[in-house]
């Protein structure tokens, strides 16, 4: 089955999960072939402000770049955050073709609140059904309960979020960073797949207060 046709078979599942869980559950279907126009189906997008054609998130890009899908079927129960600051409990199911290559991601994001505990439990059961053939692949990333994904609605904010997270690891302003530190930041961004986004080089260069040619030089460093 062609990748696009296979992905389209998951669209009813997007609606099914959203109808069962309710309005505080955002469900998306991503096409990872076109990361800049990745969302091909969405329900309750009001939660993050996303709609059809929105890009893949920073976390999604990292999963794609690191090929996390090769040894697991999903990443579940991690924290994400909207542009408005709302925190959500999120899970991502990897959709693969017959060659075990990733073609899409089914993502479920539930608004965190005391009233949504039963909703989360229901969603866990739905994810477990998807993982029925490989339950050991149910891997969480919540050991330190850090927010690992920013639910952004534009390409610019996806890049901004990815850069800000890495810069935050350094206890100093950008203008005081050394060449080695800026090189390390660019290498980390590359490892997280952010340069799959068109225009990311320009954005990163501006944030790091350097030139695009310098960013390319940092990328070439090993």
From TrEMBL:
Organism: Sporomusa ovata
One Pfam family recorded for the sequence: HTH_22
YheO-like domain segment(s): 7-110
Designated name of the protein: YheO-like PAS domain
Highest classification ranks of the organism: Bacteria, Bacillati, Bacillota, Negativicutes, Selenomonadales
Domain Transcriptional regulator DauR-like HTH: 159-219
Domain of life: Bacteria
InterPro entries: DauR-like, DauR-like_HTH, YheO
